[in-house]
Amino acid sequence: MFAHILEFLGRSPPDPVRLPLTGSHWPVLIVLTTYLVFIKILGPMFMQSRKPYDLNGVIKAYNIIQIAYNMILLVFAVYFMVGPGDYSFKCISNLPLDHEYKNWERWLSYSYFFNKFMDLLETVFFVLRKKDRQITFLHVFHHVYMVYFGFLYLYYYGYGGHAFFLITFNVVVHVLMYTYYYQSSVNQNLRNDLWWKKYITIVQLIQFGIILSHSIYILRQDDCHTSRLSATWGSIISVIFIILFGNFYLRAYIIPQKKKTSRRVH
What we know:
Elements: H1 2-9, H2 25-47, H3 56-82, H4 102-119, H5 121-128, H6 137-157, H7 162-186, H8 197-219, H9 228-265
Helix pairs in contact: 2-5, 2-6, 3-4, 3-7, 4-6, 7-8, 8-9
């Protein structure tokens, strides 16, 4: 097994075009290591004797940028898949290297990957605002996983293809999520009163359900030449995230609601 892992890690990228941060493991690992050291060690030490920073203006701007970025990416991604990319959703493969729209596939895939680095700033804001309770295992695991798995896919399987179809659902979730964050930053009193807040988690769970279903569908087709590792790992990580986000939804919404109902009865 160890030999297979070394063989996998030693593979050359199938696409010779290497965009920034996709040329080797090291840049991505350095960024993620710096991120983890800051949010777990250096950041809390720096903030220990300081008051929380007022970053409301910065966060508003950040949320607006994220909403616009993900909306534009979503429009171009859907247009590309059903238009010039001509994806067959029964079996999605990366476009050939000489395809006339290959650069579309490269830059759209890369735009999503780069956005995962932008997402890391969210945790930095938590640290600087002393919102340590929001830096949960789910939060950190999700951010680190999305960056590194995104890199692994681009490096070992190229741009686009099956994973590009799957991440489009995540872009939809991000539009909803950052819209909620923006509304919360505009009026802090609305943070816990926005009626659709819990539906963001429901949409996330639906997203993972779709990814799991489509990945299993791909794996059941012996004649489909798409990335089977992408479909396999998509299935596994979807189950993990369904458990993690399901647990979050249970603790954040179901259990508190039951406690309120119980108090009213008694």
